[in-house]
Design a protein that fits this description.
The chain contains eight helices and no strands. α1 packs parallel to α3, α3 crosses α5 and α4 packs across α5.
Length: about 200
């Protein structure tokens, strides 16, 4: 999709679109929001707050799913959330001794979707206090979002320079594409279910 189309889309739908996407995919939309801030399409503070809201609402959803819906709702979502019962059981056991550590590492470390979702669901299953869960998530998420916004902002603020040098643009996109392909390859060659944490 051309950058002009992306800019036009977010200029029209703005922060509601960012919130909806952040619910499902936080890092990518945070980088894109940073790019749009660099292009003076969005503003920093509203973008940060909307990204935080989307991320925290998603985390709260998975917590509630783990605490009150792991026996009734979660089995119906196995098609989308491929977290094995054995992995969840191990995580729940570990939450009783080092829950905060697991939660912080899960938020800050890049991992395929099932791993991150499993950590959040297990927090609910372990009956981690909701206030503590939300506080840890908010602190960890804020640092992560600031980092991705900064990356996006640097790209956006240098967009005219990049587009005026096609050769440089080719190199940059080749590197980004190569990293993306590598991440995808690593993801596809993982077990589709979590067997070890």
């Amino acid at each position: 999709m051309p950058i002009e189309t992306v800019v036009a889309t977010f200029a029209t739908y703005g922060y509601p679109a960012i919130f909806l996407i952040a619910f499902f995919e936080g890092p990518a939309i945070a980088i894109l929001a940073g790019v749009l801030i660099g292009l003076h399409i969005l503003q920093l503070v509203p973008s940060f707050l909307v990204l935080m809201a989307g991320d925290i609402v998603a985390d709260a959803f998975y917590y509630v799913l783990g605490r009150w819906g792991h026996e009734t709702v979660l089995p119906r979502l196995r098609r989308f959330i491929t977290v094995s019962d054995a992995a969840l059981t191990r995580l729940v056991q570990q939450y009783h001794t080092r829950g905060s550590e697991i939660l912080v590492l899960g938020k800050l470390h890049w991992s395929p979707l099932p791993v991150g979702v499993g950590i959040l669901i297990a927090a609910g299953m372990a009956h981690m206090p909701f206030g503590r869960f939300m506080l840890i998530n908010a602190v960890a998420s804020s640092g992560k979002i600031i980092l991705f916004l900064a990356i996006g902002y640097m790209l956006g603020s240098h967009y005219p320079l990049v587009t005026s040098h096609p050769f440089l643009t080719g190199i940059v996109f080749s590197l980004v594409g190569g990293l993306g392909f590598y991440a995808y390859w690593k993801y596809k060659h993982r077990s589709p279910r979590i067997d070890k944490i």
